[in-house]
Amino acid sequence: MRQLADITQDCGGRLIGADRAFSSVNTDTRTLAAGQLFVALRGPRFDGNTYLAEAAARGAVGAIAEREGPADFPVVLVDDALVALQRAAQRWRTRFSMPLIGVAGSNGKTTSKEMIASILSGCGETLATAGNLNNHIGVPLTLLRLDASHRHAVIEMGANHPGELAQLAGFATPAIGIVTNAGAEHLEGFGSLEGAARAEGELFAALGQDGTAILNVDDSFAGLWRDMTVARIVTFGLGSKADFSARDIQTEMGADGFLTRFTLVSPQGEQKISLHLAGKHNVLNALGAAAAAIAAGATLDDVAKGLARMRPVKGRLQLRGARQGAWLIDDSYNANPSSLQAAVDVLEALGGRRFLVLGEMGELGDFSREAHLEAGRYARAHGVERLFAVGEATKLSVESFGEGGVWHENTAAVAEEVGRELAADVRVLVKGSRSNRLERVVAALESVPSAGGMH
């Protein structure tokens, strides 16, 4: 338990009302629990300061807010609740000295974060970002969950404009940083692929000389990132020149999902790895996770056990059974050009008749037209027989894909047509940005609807 007086001092506010103990912080009255401290954030379509009475009714012990609340409801009065939250998190972080790992990159952040956390949880209590709460609000909220029981912390950091990762790293002060890759994501904010790479590299730039940068040498911007850090560099990649590499990679498909086996080659020796994920990109994620975890004190045995426990993150290459004995690969959580190509590579390796359900890829700016044209070309060149598209920009993908491509106005129409063509030899990849709501297609095609992967 913490005191309102302490967080008042940390965030530079003024406490109005009695000092009380609180268990944790929450920014959403819909999930607020008794004993929590409510932070009244403002946004384009909401103002948390109008919910102070509701927060009190739900049992909050007080609030960080920009106006006073109901009688007998303590308020830490501040000029800007978001800035106060960030200051409080930054100050709270300084109370703990455990290794903190920052995870950034265009693709694979959440999967890599979960891998690292799975490994380190076998070594002691580990704090990890919940879901993908990786922005200027989510990172402070995660840091405020730190307590004396934690031996490690794994913090996912996302960005859609330059300077954002520098700010997040300033809050978290990581000792270890990993950038999974740089790809065509959020190009509206970054301006170019190099702009995206420089922005991701801000995590490396934030590391001190006693820090460790976990660097993907397979990425074309590896040289740029080397130049951006003064930290010790540990490399990972599928090639033999990396500190952490892999050989003898084999993937199989079964009723329990994908299983990939490979040999991890590292400075600490070799280790057989079993991973319940598909794709060479996930082997690469595992190599980076192993390097980061070992930098934080894990052993190769810890790595093997932790990766074996890892299961697919929801909506990210989850293998599911579909109607008529077909197989469904649910990668509906999000999409950008490089993650789409990685998913199509997984589909290609499965054999059979390969269908792609494709939604729009968002936030690509001027690159959007070429990216969607290339999506159709790549699918055609890598064994996709049918392309079912939804979203205005995917008309370009259908055009470049050619025969076998069809565009639909909505997900219901896509699900209906794909459903008619399902058979035992069909494998369906569902891929698109979150705004497409392609999880609706997944739910319509599943043989047994479920919230997770196949069991």
Q: In total, how many domains does the architecture comprise?
A: 3
Averaged pLDDT, please? 94
CATH class assignment of the largest domain: Alpha Beta
How is the largest sheet built, in terms of strand order?
11-12-10-13-14-15
Given helix and strand content, the structural type is: alpha/beta
Query: What's the overall geometry?
Result: globular
Which short descriptors sum up this protein?
455 residues, UDP-N-acetylmuramoyl-L-alanine:D-glutamate ligase, Udp-n-acetylmuramoylalanyl-d-glutamate--2,6- Diaminopimelate Ligase, Chain: A, domain 1, alpha/beta, Protein-Tyrosine Phosphatase, Chain A, single chain, disordered C terminus, six-stranded parallel β-sheet, globular, 3 domains
Give a written overview of the molecule.
This protein has 17 helices and 24 strands. With 455 residues, it is an alpha/beta fold. The chain folds into three domains: 82 residues, MurE/MurF, N-terminal domain (Udp-n-acetylmuramoylalanyl-d-glutamate--2,6- Diaminopimelate Ligase, Chain: A, domain 1), CATH 3.40.1390.10; 214 residues, Mur-like, catalytic domain (UDP-N-acetylmuramoyl-L-alanine:D-glutamate ligase, 3-Layer(aba) Sandwich); 128 residues, Mur ligase, C-terminal domain (Protein-Tyrosine Phosphatase, Chain A, Alpha-Beta Complex), CATH 3.90.190.20. The strands form six sheets. The chain has a six-stranded parallel β-sheet, sandwiched between helices. Helix 1 crosses helix 3.
